[in-house]
Amino acid sequence: xxxxxxxxxRGLGFFLSKAAAERGHTVFACARNGDQPAGGLKELIDQFPxxxxxxxxxxxxxxxxxxxxxxxxxxxxxxxxxxxxxxVLYARDSKIEExxxxxxxxxxxxxxxxxxxxxKHFLPLLFKGANQTIINISSDAGSMTNAYGGxxxxxxxxxxxxxxxxxxxxxxxxxxxxVYAVHPGWIKTDMGGEKAPGSPExxxxxxxxxxxxxxxxxxxxxxxxHDGESMKI
Length: 233
Prior knowledge:
The protein is an alpha/beta fold. The chain has helices at 11-22, 39-47, 62-75, 101-127, 152-171, 200-211, and strands spanning 2-5, 26-31, 52-56, 81-84, 133-137, 178-183, 223-225. The protein has a 7-stranded parallel β-sheet, with helices on both faces.
């Protein structure tokens, strides 16, 4: 399969790229500095030179997203899965009375508008693929049932991402494309921190099972945990 992963240079995106390559898939590893991969991603590309292809993609810049889609279209013609993983977490401890709205706007630009831009420009390539899946990395913070007074930018952006996910699921319902907003769990990444109990490797492999359709998920579900279980909307 040909799998597009945003935010592939670190955190869950890195482990998703690694898990996909280890399973024999082709990976378009997207990052803002994708044309000059460094660190762990460069080592991963060196390990899987014929499977992982770095792609320069800034999800906040539609021209760049469009150009990346055109590049993949020209070289590969189609993709089979999109994983919208790139995300930010700002103003975590801010009370509403102290919230910096510039950070809210930045969060929405990355966490919501970013996936929307990627789907807008890569969906035509996905239509040409096989056994297609779209995964938007969401969070339990985006559950309105379990809403709490905090993490305003992050939680609101993920709740909105869940809505977008449901819209796209409805939009492609006649094309047999799976679409999910996925809570990855509290995992040890730069965002999750060292105290997180979960493993990014486990989450990445569970998501690959979903993409490979090894997990049976009820058709009506769109907001799920990484293990395929339902999340409260």
